[in-house]
Amino acid sequence: HSAGVIPPQSKSAVMIAGASGSGKSTLTTQLARSGWDYLSDDILVLTAVGEELHLHAFRRFFALTDETLAAVHLGAVKTPAVDSKHRVIPQDHFRRAPVETAVPRAIVFPTIIERGDSQIRALTPGETMSRLLRLCPWASYDKGTSVEHLRVLGRLANSSSGFDLLAGPDIMNDSHLTARMFFNITDKAISAY
After folding, report:
1. Residues 41-70: b if buried by 16+ CB within 10 A, e if exposed
2. 96 three-state secondary structure
3. DSSP 8-state secondary structure symbol assigned to residue 66
């Protein structure tokens, strides 16, 4: 359950992972409006290709609430809301088409806070794995597939820099500030590898 974005002039992706309502779609849309490439705003498939992990979009449309549409200034959207979200074709609003695949280098776990400025904290690989397991509890349910699922999640936690993000109104309503904060995350993640 993750969005995927790629900074300009980069091939390394930042995953934005979290439950519904954590800000994935808002942050992804903010970054896409700022010129970042994107895979998806909500669901990614992770595959192992040799020694690398690759991200692929499972869903191409964005599902945006009225609040997200207002925050990212997309204007009126013609699709009716389904379960309080509008289906938005991102190519209709952003200069770039979606990216087919990317290598993850950072994982951001956002939590929306009502007040105060946004804060970010680097995570250890163990903390990153713990958060991934909370988002993918099914990874350990099926005995036939759990070993491989856990192995791939472990590779992801060890090959990507993890970050907790307390996302305040400052970045949730300002695409330029969101892009600056995510550039800092990307710089830290890429310099770690």
Report:
1. bbbbebeeeeeebbbbbeeebbbbbeebbe
2. coil
3. H
Nearest CA-CA partner of 59 in 14, 16, 19, 98:
98
Q: Given the DSSP bridges, would you call strands 37-40 and 12-17 parallel, antiparallel or unpaired?
A: unpaired
Tokens of 182: 């995510």
pLDDT of 174 higher than 90: no
- Write down the pTM of the prediction: 0.84
pLDDT of residue 108: 96
Where does the chain have alpha helices with state H?
Answer: 24-33, 66-72, 125-135, 146-159, 169-172, 175-191
The whole-number pLDDT of residue 75 equals 60
* Token pair of 127 as six digits: 């903390």
Confidence tier at 175 by pLDDT (50, 70, 90): confident
Q: 163 near 106, Cβ under 8 Å?
A: yes
Q: What are phi and psi of 188, to 5 degrees?
A: -65, -45
How much of the chain is in helix, strand and coil states, percent to nearest 5? 35, 30, 35
For 123-156, what is each residue's pLDDT tens digit? 999 999 999 998 887 666 777 778 888 888 899 9
